[in-house]
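Lab meeting, item 3. Inverse folding demo.
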């Protein structure tokens, strides 16, 4: 999870100051955003109820995720949340469903990729996490693809195996290199546009830092691209450089850090 959160922090400055430079500087104004907050909320939802579910239990499970997302929004309401999500999160009277096709469902599912023993359960949980805020086919597919990539990486699958699985099961084309994508890539937070490049940023990497740099240097939705790429990269490479830990840890709220550490201790072990 810190791989996802640190990617968010590093990419945060470049969400509004887009860059195509792979060798960009880690900027002093970088901070955690809604990506980190909702990743922590997903951790809390899993800690609250780590049990496996069937497809028939998905509505109840979806409500548990939604409650945590609203709660964590209330802690940090000015951390860059989208207008649609903010309106939903502020509504305390009812739990309506939003049909967003944005990448917000995919950016927060990295913990799900670690928590469950099978890909089937991982995909059920990823779908449940989307049902109240991203109840659309494209958003659910993106969340399931990211969670599956993390699961496969954490279970020592090769990059080729991860690529093949995502292409076969989620019908994303992952054959383009980051270098080929970079020149024409623009800011677009829709799931179908942004999730495949984030996965490619990982596939084209040689370590954790290069995955994050690949994602940010696309010049798009940098914090979310780096959050996704960084989350998969941590599961695959199993280490984050000390200079990145030092840069990011000082910019992370204690409450987020503590719930992620609890998740590592109790769920990943």
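The presenter then showed the designed sequence:
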């Amino acid at each position: 999870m810190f791989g996802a959160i640190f990617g968010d922090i590093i990419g945060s400055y470049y969400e509004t100051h887009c860059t195509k430079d792979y060798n960009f500087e880690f900027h002093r104004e970088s901070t955690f955003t809604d990506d980190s907050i909702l990743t922590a909320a997903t951790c809390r939802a899993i800690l609250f109820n780590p049990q496996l579910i069937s497809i028939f239990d998905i509505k109840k499970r979806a409500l548990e995720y939604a409650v945590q997302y609203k709660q964590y929004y209330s802690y940090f309401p000015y951390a860059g949340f989208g207008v649609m999500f903010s309106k939903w999160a502020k509504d305390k009277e009812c739990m309506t469903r939003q049909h967003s096709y944005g990448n917000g469902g995919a950016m927060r599912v990295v913990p799900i990729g670690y928590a469950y023993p099978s890909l089937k359960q991982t995909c059920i949980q990823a779908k449940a996490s989307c049902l109240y805020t991203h109840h659309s086919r494209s958003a659910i597919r993106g969340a399931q693809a990211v969670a599956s990539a993390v699961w496969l990486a954490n279970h020592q699958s090769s990059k080729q195996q991860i690529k093949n699985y995502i292409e076969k099961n989620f019908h994303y084309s992952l054959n383009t290199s980051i270098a080929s994508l970079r020149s024409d890539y623009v800011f677009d937070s829709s799931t179908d546009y942004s999730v495949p490049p984030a996965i490619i940023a990982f596939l084209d990497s040689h370590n954790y830092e290069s995955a994050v740099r690949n994602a940010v240097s696309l010049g798009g939705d940098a914090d979310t691209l780096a959050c996704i790429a960084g989350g998969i990269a941590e599961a695959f490479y199993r280490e984050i450089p000390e200079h990145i830990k030092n840069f990011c840890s000082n910019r992370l709220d204690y409450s987020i850090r503590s719930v992620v550490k609890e998740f590592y201790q109790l769920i990943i072990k």
